[in-house]
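Why tetrahydrofolate synthase? Reviewers of the renewal asked for a concrete example.
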Amino acid sequence: MSTHTDIVAALQARWPEHRIGRSLERIRALTELLGEPQRSFPVIQITGTNGKGSTALMVEGLLRALGLRVGRLSSPHLVDVTERIAIDGQPIDADAFDALVADVLPLVEMVDAREIDGIAMTFFEVMTGLAYEAFAQAPVDVAVVEVGLGGSWDATSVADAQVAVICPVDVDHSHLLGDTPAEIAQEKAGIIKPGGIAVSADQRPDVAAVLTARAAEVGVRLLAEGRDFALLERTAAVGGQVLRIDAADGPVGDLFLPLFGAHMAANAALAVAAVEAFLGGRALAPDVLAEGLASVSAPARLEVVRRSPTVVLDTAHNPHGVAATLDAVQEAFGFAPLVAVMGVMADKDAEGMLALLEEHAQTIVCTQASSTSRGLSADDLAELAAERFGADRVHTRAALPDALELAVSLADEAGAGAGVLILGSVIVAGEARAMLVTERPSVDAGDDGDDGDPADDDEDDERDGEDVAWGR
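Here is what the prediction returned.
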């Protein structure tokens, strides 16, 4: 009998997420065989360059505060693929996932046999089909769906979203989506479809023009940050921040968000607007807003994973995300000095990230992921880092456990104000979290972290430094 590990390995042996088959035909073929499960519930679909995951968690928290049963499809995962499919705020149980795969796999193989565009179903396409089937079986009242890549041809777009949410758009995956924000916005705008409503974060003028044109083309109302909703004020607080948001019925204040950073506060305003759009423009009651936002937890997004010295984990993996993360770290922690641990994928803008990081970090420890061949080697990253930092501020440890151990040692030597920030890749963040946090990532929007210190896009869990097992 196949184990869960065997089942996951077989799924991941398919085309990975960084290899894209630009077509919805395979996922459409699968959902047709499944009986169109994606049509059995309304969908709130979320795209953008950064902030999709945290916005999805906030939308989920607000919907659950309304008493609705919510399914959430997210990507990528940190530790196990089951994190991608959440129902009632909890990742699907491994046994339930394995049973779901057993039921759906014969249909997947039928689609594979058709050789649509000469490609078998990709890993992401299969995961999307599994999620939609799981949500239909539950059943859920609404699904919150995070786009994997792009928008118009992303597998999640086999569903027509009632609400299309566009987080800030910047340059990432340029080899697949385009070289400019406006070109990338063309792909992401594809989730805006007739019969729905669109909600957009504050965007660059060229991106806003693309989204406005798409909404007009399909006859959809576009709600824009600054015009139709806004973050009015935020104040730093213990374990997060307190917000005042301009919502459907006007300003609502004293909303505690257990996440750090201006970008998270903006994501909260976007999430509120998205849920109110889903309700047909009806305002959320202040107590629902308070409960929904206060309940959000997000693993590996400015998550405190160790104390003495403090170690913070984040998934920032492009310059836009790194800039937001560094601003939030400075505001929330004020590490002096900051020791960075960085590992990146080879197709990412490492130089752009390093340029930003050099302004904040005294020292950088260059490392690499062990679970993928896509990563930039620690030596190559260190060579790039030396051009920015100078060789005396750069350390190289290819093995992530060694990199973490060195960074903690450097922070210890630097004194009480020092801290460690791990960033650069979702894959590296997942490997680090598996070493530093013993519990499986819980993405329950109703679970608070151990001490109120949040993460930034998935959950909050912390252990004292003395209890950390580095793992090898």
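The two ends are 29 Å apart (CA to CA). This is the kind of structural detail the renewal will allow us to pursue systematically.
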